[in-house]
Input
Amino acid sequence: MPKERLEPEKLLPLTSSVFHILLALSDGDLHGYGIMQEVSEHTGGQIRLGPGTLYGAIKRLLANGLIVEVDERPDPELDDERRRYYRLTDFGQKVLKAEAQRISKLVSVAQQKRLLPKRT
Amino acid sequence: MLLAYPREFRFVYGSEMTQVFCDCYRDTNSRGRIVEFWVRVILDVIRTAPLERWETLRKGETMRNVKRDVLGFLACLAIIVLAVIPHRYMVTHGAGSMFLVGYALDAIISAGVVGNLIIFVLMMAMRRSTFRTALWSLLIVNGALLLIAILIGIRVGGFNFPAVVVSYIVSFLFWLAIHWIWSQSRTPAEPVA
Output
């Protein structure tokens, strides 16, 4: 059951794997393996999701209405039709933005404490 | 490895997880990092399968069945304790006229302890049908205990073969009846759509 009325902030902080999955889906619809590759790519190979972590997170994201399963596929001719594609919902987008802002605030604090260089 | 996850989870994501596993295996194999791949996959299963199982257990129907199973387990323990009391009395007072009852109680206690323990462990781990698990477990346990009793009886001597055989048949039928009654009160777990 999607929880559209839930405040995005109520779901924060997101776990690292959930944040990266949502981040991967922010560029467009992806299937499970596509999400894994995207996460591995944008973290420089630091985070490699296993099948159990990925589908456990997908199950919870679907239940909370942050993502939905879609029937359309980007390239039907090249793709295996058994694959399921996932899409970020508007609510998922809001949660992702809220988490990014939360992290950004943390970065600001770290910059004020001179743990990180300030952006010019 | 998929078997480590709950049935409901496998039903929804099993084929996709297999496909992703095959894609990852192909990709990693081509880069010659197969050991790293297996370590990562095994650690992933160890970390996520108990979480999924716990989440499934927390769901209504399954949780209600767990409560019922625990109650059933306690009821079986109570039956065993009730059987131990007259058994101990007969052993200490040498109640000769109740000798065959003593054999039956002996079988009911020993098969009850071993058989029920196996049944509960299997049911908690696999969430299989109560009655079928009970039927096979009790058949094997009673058969094995009967065999052990015969072997010991042959060595020691003074062995009442018909009484022991009848007592284990009685024990098997007794525990099977208990588990049949119990299985009738169970709610079937619904697959999560």
